[in-house]
Amino acid sequence: MTAASEQFFTGKEVNALPFARPGDALEIVPGLVVTQHSGEGKANQYFLRGFNLDHGTDLALYLDGMPLNMRTHGHAQGYADSNFLIPELLSYVLARKGPYDAQDGDFSSAGSIYMQYKDTIDKGFFQVTGGSFAYARALAVAPYRDFAGGSAYGAVEAQYYNGPWERGDNMRRLNSVLRWSRGSQEDGASMTFMGYANKWYATDQIPLRAVSSGLLSRWGTMDPTDGGATSRFSLSTRWSQIEGNHATRVEGYVVHSTLDLYSNYTYFLGHQDLGDQIRQFDDRTIVGVNAQHGIRWIDINGSPVETRIGFQGRYDDIRLGLQESVRRQLYDTLSNNAVGEGSIGVWTDTAVRWTPWLKTVTGARFDYYNAAVSSLQTLLDAPKLEASTGLPTFLLTGPFNQGVKNAALFSPKASIIVGPFYKTEFFANYGEGFHSTDARGTVLRFSASELADDDGFVQGASIPLLVKSRGAEIGARTKFIEGLNSSVSLFWLNLESENQFVGDSGTTIFGRPSRRYGLEFANQYSPNSWIRFDGDVALVHARYRGVDVPQTLAWLDLVTPDALPYGTFLGNAPGNYLSNAIAVTAMGGLELGEATGWFGALKYRYFGARALTEDGYFRSPATGTLNARLGYRWSDGWRLQFDAFNVFNSRSDQITFAYGSLLPSDPLYLQCAAGVAPSQVCGVGVMDRHFKPLEPAAVRVTLAGPLNFDQPITRLPDLSEPFSR
Length: 725
Prior knowledge:
By secondary structure, the protein is mainly beta. The chain has a single domain, classed as TonB-dependent receptor, beta-barrel domain (Maltoporin, Chain A), CATH 2.40.170.20. It has 6 helices and 41 strands. The strands form 8 sheets. It has a 22-stranded antiparallel beta barrel. A 5-stranded mixed sheet has the order 1-9-10-5-6. The chain has a 3-stranded antiparallel sheet with strand order 2-3-4, with no helix packed on it. A hairpin with a 5-residue loop joins strand 23 and strand 24 (392-394). The longest helix has 10 residues, at 549-558. It is globular.
């Protein structure tokens, strides 16, 4: 490990703590918060190191060498859906924070998480789970030994969930993995097929004023037709070899994924007659390869040296767009694009052990991106807006919002490791990283959703294809106390700009440069084989840098004499808060039990109140939840397990936002419809907190047992055994 914040977890450690969703398993990474705001099929929301990462913009996720982040995505840049993850198959999770490792490229400014499935399964098993709010899950995993010169296994998962919502999620998920391998990760080969499909309805975040007035319950929805469908199919291969002082690894993959998503976040703000539901779609095929070669040698001073060189190539063939709809009935197309986006990355680093207590790692990477954006929008499906003459006008912006862009970045990296002294090491790291932006935003010339007062197209401004970050960290890791593994780190991270293309509106937002710095403290303590404590806390200060001129001008429009009485200026003043940047996160865990017999676990997660607007006027509540597990394992492979979630029935929020929306019950709704309210006020709507509540206390029961097709089950577990020990 080359940084104090770097963490490695086995699959057993990941699965020891209770979690409600597959993506929640990643919360074993200190400081990482994973939540959801739009149904059980959409990618999670991630928060780390003062970043509201949305669906993955600055957190790179990988599974078996395949990147999960989708660039130029129909819903969000860097969209990383981990709902197809089967946690029981995980071999390990490796988490690196910051842009300090030369191997980490796009989307890795806040961190990178590498997940690896097991190459082999020793014993087959099945498990069935049922629980509150119509939760049901079945999983079967079967090994095949001596198969085609190696070994193989297959896994099949089916899941259903409704949730506590008045409009049930009706989530239906099918998932499968088929894997063949021989040898080991370091010297062997593997081939893996994965298939996944999911359909659901979504209760999105709802306005606080609607709940406070009794218009909605906490479990209600403003649009019962929101939801979507997604699928993912992949074929990946790996070949690795160790020969003397040389080590080579090559990974290749092909991924086909789709997303069809219906959402309505502003209700009747843009269209008071039809509503603001949108459809976002994304259909893509990805091909990619990762290759690296390492060599160990001795320099002229006798110091051991390890040099690595790597290549990463990826091409995305994408069809994506944004349409407006009423109860899933489409009526116009804001954008419809075909995008081809390719990249190559070349990286290298060299680690030198100068003395028994001093090691350095220096490296760099070079990345080149090329994106070609074509418009498929036609006159007939373009938005039809009313001109000042009262006649309809077609907003055909697609032919102007297309083109080719390319960009390149050089990113140096450096680390110093001092120690060990008394089982303690000290680390200092510096690195530059980046994230790519939505290619559609790089060729944007005109707004895809509005006309000027003179009926002309509203000019838009393009954004750069690559955005640089710079970060540094100092820290220490110690095992001085027997059984205790502790690490502490101080970090700093600058992002060149927070510019982004907003897939929900087809426009660009120009964010200023930003800065984050903070402290992380993580601990794992296991005094003996049957008990383990985990605890971590992260404190972060996150702010924009500079002055937000566009926001200042917009705020001045809202404090004019005709607009001031409507109060829409509240929450829209210029400021330096980064929206939804969590200042305090903490996690505590307790695990009890041996390989057989009684076992249990507790997990407490906390993330603090935070500013929801850049002026800090709107703030979220803090959220704390406790999950618990109790179970028993029989020596012949049977397991009975009880999981409880949100044990104390906290009524806080899963996630909270603040923005303007409009409801038919708002006085402003009629004033805007009648043309009484100023246009700048009607463009903002009613500023309010919009939230998705934590799901209430829930229980799930799991029964697992051995699965061997050669030996059918003839003996059930002895249910009296747990009470006789």
